[in-house]
Amino acid sequence: MDESHLTELNMSEEVYDTDQFFTTDNQNSENFDSNLELNSEQLEHVDEKQTDAVIEKKTPPQRNETTRTKLPIARIRNIMRMDPDVSIVHSDAVFLVTKATELFLETMAKEAHTYMSLNKRKTIAKKDLDHVINNVDCLCFLEGAMDF
Predict the structure, then answer these.
(1) Are 96 and 113 within 8 A, CB to CB?
(2) Closest alpha carbon to 76 in 94, 102, 100, 91
(3) Which ranges of the chain does DSSP label H, i.e. alpha helix?
(4) 15, 74, 89, 142: which has the fewest Cβ within 10 Å?
(5) pTM of this structure
(6) Is 91's pLDDT higher than 60?
(7) Are 107 and 119 in contact (CB under 8 A)?
(8) What is the spatial distance between Cα 91 and Cα 104, in angstroms, rounded to a whole number?
(9) How far apart are CA 39 and CA 46, in angstroms?
């Protein structure tokens, strides 16, 4: 570009009065404070969303209360496979056996606790389990199982 063309460009540019872009100091500080509060609220909102997303990614999916077991399913599967007559063990069957075992043990423990507390003791003894087996009708099939 030649020199004459550059001077035409410089002359064609308008010079703005910068005072029109700036207001008084009080208005600027008020605008700045309100913008700062607005931006910090938006930032907190974004941070909450990001935190929730990170928490969702890190926490394993929660199992339903009906599928949660207290006894180890893998160990019960191994016990079931020890039977020579059993060739295939389905996961539904293992789950049902696990839940049934839990309910059975819970019933035995509650009944034994009842007899233990009637005798004003703090520990469950073998005699409490014998008493449960002999006195609870649904557990009468266990008679003689504790004789060892």
Answers:
(1) no
(2) 94
(3) 3-12, 25-58, 73-81, 91-118, 126-135
(4) 15
(5) 0.52
(6) yes
(7) no
(8) 20
(9) 10
